[in-house]
Write a structure and sequence with these properties.
By secondary structure, the protein is of the alpha/beta class. The protein has a domain of 162 residues: Rossmann fold. Helices cover 34% and strands 11% of the residues. Strands 1, 2, 3, 4 and 5 form a five-stranded parallel β-sheet that branches. It has a two-stranded antiparallel ribbon with strand order 6-7. Strand 8 and strand 9 form a beta hairpin. Helix 8 crosses helix 9.
């Protein structure tokens, strides 16, 4: 008789800093759903938050033990489908003390859930030291954090800490405040936050069929993010490796460009240097994307196809 294989459990969390970022919360959930549907975490079973009682009552449920948890926070979470632990209008600096986050950790410990997934590392916190401290503390309890922008990398390792510290090099694309720098004549699309042209490597564009309200905005592309992570892992294993050596490795290992062609040294250099824009934070704790130069977006060979 064949012994059934053990499957780990995973919970997902989404957070926004302000009420104005409501669409950002939805966009995080879309990105998380897309990653799960695409099989990025196919070896895990998704465990959803425990439900409320009849008519939304807490009595006799898991939530009864959290009197400090505001009813509006629970309402917000279940209003977004009840699949994720959602927190709205909470700064990352105090998120680790929020009742929903603490409840999530309690539920994970009690139900053998060993993994928690965020859409982006800064949805957990923008403070690198705070994240690393939290990762170390929860790892000791048997709970591991995952972030879509870092794939399945163990961020508690030296290589993982390096990747996390380099997190500013990865895009923070929140669909509600995206503003594309597009060619003249597309100003109307730019004002609506609709991305014009081919998306940067590592990202994909939301189609009208997927989500009419967020059409034209950007999400992570799990398949391309896998290659980006594999590329960085290769560099960490072989310091000083050249772009030509990286392109040779990528082709021999079966990785292909977005158009299905072989990688070139120039193509590797482009995505290593410009694959995702840098981010900046203004005084209002809002996300400010600094996007690609226009000439780069207009280049049809952006991902290395020079033929």
């Amino acid at each position: 008789m064949e012994t059934p294989s053990y499957r780990e459990k995973i919970a997902i969390i989404a957070r926004t800093s302000t009420l104005k970022q409501e669409k950002g919360l939805e966009s995080q959930l879309v990105a998380l759903d897309y990653a799960l549907d695409a099989g990025l975490y196919q070896e895990y079973d998704l465990i959803t938050p425990p439900p409320l009682g009849k008519d939304g009552e807490r009595k006799g449920t898991f939530w009864e033990r959290y009197p400090d948890l505001d009813d509006k926070d629970l309402k917000t979470m279940f209003a977004h489908g009840g699949k994720a632990w959602c927190v709205e209008d909470v700064s990352g600096s105090v998120f680790h003390n929020h009742p929903i986050y603490l409840a999530c950790l309690d539920y994970c410990r009690e139900n053998g859930i060993t993994n928690i997934l965020f859409e982006h590392s800064d949805r957990h916190s923008r403070d690198t030291e705070m994240i690393l401290s939290e990762i170390r503390q929860r790892k000791a309890e048997g709970i591991y954090f995952h972030y879509l922008n870092f794939g399945g990398m163990d961020l508690s390792t030296p290589a993982g800490r390096m990747m996390l510290t380099m997190g500013a090099a990865f895009a923070e694309y929140y669909r509600n405040d995206l503003k594309s720098k597009t060619i003249r004549g597309m100003k109307n699309l730019e004002e609506k936050g609709i991305w014009a042209g081919s998306p940067p490597y590592g990202l994909r564009v939301i189609t009208q069929k997927e989500d009419k309200e967020n059409y034209g905005k950007l999400l992570y592309n799990p398949a391309e993010m896998r290659f980006i992570l594999a590329l960085y892992d290769r560099i960490l294993q072989r310091p000083g490796v050249s772009y030509r050596q990286l392109s040779k490795w990528a082709n021999e290992d079966g990785w292909r460009t977005r158009r299905g062609k072989n990688w070139t040294a120039m193509g590797i250099r482009r995505i290593m240097t410009f694959m995702l824009p840098w981010k900046g934070i203004n005084d209002d704790d809002e996300n400010c994307g600094k996007y690609f130069l226009k000439e780069m977006r207009e280049n049809p060979a952006l991902d290395g196809d020079n033929s």
